[in-house]
Amino acid sequence: MSTLRARLDAMRPSQAGPTRTADPRPPDHFPSRGNYRSYLMFGLGSSLMLLVSANLLRVVKSLGDGERAFDALLESFAHPLYLGFHLLAFVWLSWVALHFFALFPKTQPFRIGPFKRPPDALLVTGLRALFLLSTLLVTALLLGVL
Amino acid sequence: MRALMLKLEPIIWGLFGGGMFVGALLLPAFVLVLGVLAPLGVVTLDTGALFALARHPLGRLVCLVTIALPLWAGAHQLRHIFLDFGGLRYDGFLGALLYLLALLGSALGIVAVWNL
Amino acid sequence: MAEQKKTLVVTRFDPDRDQTPTTREYEIPVEADWKVLDALNYIKAQVDPTLSHRWSCRMAVCGSCGMNVNGEPKLTCKQPLSAYGERVEVAPLANFPVIRDLVVEMDGFMERLKQVKPWIIEAKEEAKREGTNRQSHAELMDFKQFSMCINCMLCYAACPVVANEPDYLGPAALALGHRYNQDTRDHGGVERNQILRDDGGVFSCSYANECSEVCPKGVDPAGAIQQAKLNNVLDWAKRFVVPRRKPRAPTAAAQSDEPGRG
């Protein structure tokens, strides 16, 4: 049984029936059961984007403020707490990306213009390959390799 | 507040979808290089080259969307997590607060990119 | 072969006597090919005639016998008893008020279903104007999967949003709304989309995807809802490009669109 509660008015009809009813329970094993767990991890992982993008904002701002500001910011990122957070964010966001692309195909219509939607497996593989490619590309660009 | 958010939901959802896509494709690489490899000293960044890259019109655009859109995605996801754990009563306040944060971050992103 | 026994832990609730639901255990002999429903029917017939549960067709068509089995929403006529160990927990569907034992209150679901206008709007008018409604195979495939729903409500029992947002129309109803919007014979897209994006509509869905996981007919309500979100965003954006016609006011003719009335 879940430790959470469902709202007492969940799925209630607008008019009460002739007999007293027992209160609704929330979905059993929410959020510990398999699919709910990955759903929650996905939600929490994507919420991390709030913090990660805020940090990227600081990076871009520091670039505008000059080389010293940028170096100082990167130096502050060497703090173990920052390092730990960024490492966690990298792993978690990569998983979020792979999971997102698995969920993505069926959000699209069966037909896009005159074309049929490609098979889900093909779309998922393609999107995941795109993720790998863009990660490599951005990494190479930032490192000045390209 | 909920009524206003409901009215704006198509835009918010559009920003959320875009944010998930951009965040999934670009954020891990940014975090890896700027948040892990460079601070650890595994790689050395050429600040001048980075500056030139970011100032390029395409670089500015990438910086802006990578800052702004994932903020909306994160705000939207966090709002739904609160809702899933019984936060409906506070949704008007919490949802608005989260989206305002995303809006503020997006505005600051535009300023930061402008000042590059 | 030795007779196999299993213990069914069944939720009981008598509104005249009990404050809250309790459980009762029944140890019964079972056959190898039994479904969960067979065990419940055995208990009702042989052990305890006071047990109440809904069922009808026994072939996963009527959608009556949905229950939570070991915590997961299942059609009990389809779910083999052999999938479980010695103890099997059978409870009424989660997220619904309980009338008695394993029987849940369905009226809230029926009301939500009606709200999305699950019928073809202006079908007769179109037929009068233009003759037979022709539909290509590709057009049919745009919605066929979503029309396979048997209203068993398993998706409602699995959805975390249903538990937390009382106005949420829910997976089956929203998927059905999308099904009619995708039907080329239908002309109610504008008015139905207003319902779909209103309070409790598609945008309340947080895409947990569990509705699709538990669906015994492969309908994929989660996919339908995300597609409906995309449609609504495009529909909403179009308003700024193309001036739209006003949604049709309900007329006597529209009322006659409702199945069973005209």
Q: Could you explain the architecture of this structure?
A:
The complex is a heterotrimer of chains A (146), B (116) and C (262). With 146 residues, chain A is mostly helical. In chain A, 61% of the residues lie in helices and 3% in strands. Among the domains of chain A are: 27-85; 104-146. Chain A has 4 helices and 2 strands, in the order H-H-H-E-E-H. The mean pLDDT of chain A is 93. Chain B is elongated, with a radius of gyration of 17 Å. With 116 residues, chain B is an all-alpha fold. With 262 residues, chain C is an alpha+beta fold. Chain C has 11 helices and 7 strands. Chain C has helices at residues 36-47, 107-115, 123-130, 137-141, 154-158, 160-164, 171-181, 189-196, 210-214, 221-238, 252-255; strands at 4-12, 22-30, 66-69, 72-75, 87-91, 98-100, 103-104. In chain C, strands 2-1-5-3-4 form a 5-stranded mixed beta sheet. In chain C, strands 6-7 form a two-stranded antiparallel sheet. In chain C, a hairpin with a 2-residue loop joins strand 6 and strand 7 (103-104). The interface between A and B is large, with 57 and 57 residues.
What is the share of helical residues of chain A? 55-70%
How many helical stretches of chain C?
11
Overall structural class of chain C, as computed from helix and strand content, comes to alpha+beta
Write out the CATH superfamily name of the largest domain in chain C. Answer: Alpha-helical ferredoxin
Number of domains of chain C: 2
CATH topology of the largest domain in chain C: Fumarate Reductase Iron-sulfur Protein, Chain B, domain 2
Strand content of chain C: 5-15%
Q: State Rg of chain A.
A: 23 Å
Biggest sheet features of chain C: 5 strands, mixed
Strand content of chain A: under 5%
Quick one: overall form of chain C? Answer: elongated
What share of residues of chain C is helical? 25-40%
Averaged pLDDT of chain A: 93
CATH architecture grouping of the largest domain in chain C:
Orthogonal Bundle
Order of helices and strands of chain A: HHHEEH
| Main beta-sheet annotation of chain A | 2 strands, antiparallel
Q: How are the strands ordered across the major sheet of chain C?
A: 2-1-5-3-4
CATH class identity of the largest domain in chain C: Mainly Alpha
Provide the structure class of chain A.
Answer: mainly alpha
Radius of gyration of chain C: 21 Å
